[in-house]
């Protein structure tokens, strides 16, 4: 049976594995979008071995951005899967969709691996780890976990909140960036103030707020003991009066991981676009489902 050996995407006469993964115009677009550092002369048009060797050496280079280079196995997989989709189903994703799919799947995998390693251990240590897992709010209440990531060199803060009901189900989540932030305390204050405003705008009035800013939490709950925070606390209280019932609590990092990972994407990956979305981000689904089971 005669087969068409042409690339169905770019029309090259002889299609090869190396062509699909590296030298096809479509593959080049995906690699460019991914931010993966390109070889000095670009990927080889003829040698799959040379290209794979370059990928392996780059992932071991400590000077590279880990979050970018670690995605390459999923990039390869989705490039090949996309080629098969075109051949057998007549459907082709665009280059941005392919990269997003690869990035999302990679993030899910690495989150799952880190959760698995945290779960290892026996005896007292294992029990202690279990105790600091996320805890659900009382019935008829919501819990708003607030994450914050601050860069001293960039004067940049990323903030995120994740709203869950008493069953541990993620109802909403949001992310935003703050510029010209001079300290970690200021970053926590801005993140918390924004979270309060968000809950009010979404008409969520019975909320437990949880975040890692211990000093600010103490200043809110015991303002007389923290006179230097008087101005900030007054601003916060002006918003808290809008709530029917509220509680502000300190959250250990192990119980606040989801919100923090979303916030870190601002500082680590330059994701400055603000958004609000239903449910949980897909790339953190495993994490939130596991926290729900631990509630």
From TrEMBL:
Domain of life: Eukaryota
One term of GO molecular function: RNA-DNA hybrid ribonuclease activity
InterPro entries recorded: RNase_H-like_EbsB-rel (IPR052929), RNaseH_domain (IPR002156)
Record domain RNase H type-1: where: 149-265
Pfam family, one: RVT_3
PANTHER family noted in UniProt: BNAC02G40300D PROTEIN, POLYNUCLEOTIDYL TRANSFERASE, RIBONUCLEASE H-LIKE SUPERFAMILY PROTEIN
Name of the protein in its database record: RNase H type-1 domain-containing protein
Organism, scientific name: Brassica cretica (Mustard)
Taxon lineage: Eukaryota, Viridiplantae, Streptophyta, Embryophyta, Tracheophyta
């Amino acid at each position: 049976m005669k087969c068409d050996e042409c690339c169905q995407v770019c029309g090259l006469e002889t299609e090869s594995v190396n062509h699909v993964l590296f030298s096809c115009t479509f593959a080049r677009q995906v690699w460019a979008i991914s931010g993966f550092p390109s070889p000095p002369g670009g990927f080889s048009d003829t040698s799959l071995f040379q290209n794979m060797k370059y990928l392996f050496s780059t992932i071991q280079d400590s000077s590279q951005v880990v979050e970018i280079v670690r995605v390459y196995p999923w990039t390869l997989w989705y490039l090949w899967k996309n080629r098969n989709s075109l051949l057998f189903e007549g459907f082709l994703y665009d280059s941005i969709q392919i990269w997003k799919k690869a990035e999302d799947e990679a993030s899910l995998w690495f989150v799952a691996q880190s959760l698995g390693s945290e779960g290892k251990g026996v005896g007292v240590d294992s029990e202690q780890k279990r105790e600091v897992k996320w805890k659900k709010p009382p019935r008829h209440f919501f819990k708003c976990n607030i994450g914050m990531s601050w860069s001293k060199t960039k004067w940049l803060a990323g903030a995120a909140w994740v709203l869950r009901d008493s069953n541990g189900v993620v109802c909403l989540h949001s992310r935003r960036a703050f510029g010209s932030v001079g300290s970690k305390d200021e970053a926590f204050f801005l993140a918390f103030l924004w979270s309060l405003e968000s809950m009010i705008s979404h008409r969520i009035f019975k909320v437990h707020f949880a975040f890692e800013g211990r000093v600010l939490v103490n200043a809110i709950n015991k303002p007389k003991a923290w006179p230097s925070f008087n101005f900030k606390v007054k601003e916060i209280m002006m918003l808290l009066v809008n709530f029917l019932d509220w509680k502000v609590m300190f959250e250990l990092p192990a119980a606040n991981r989801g919100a923090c990972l979303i916030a870190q994407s601002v500082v680590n990956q330059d994701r400055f676009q603000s958004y609000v979305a239903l449910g949980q981000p897909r790339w953190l689904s495993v994490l939130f489902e596991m926290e729900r089971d631990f509630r």
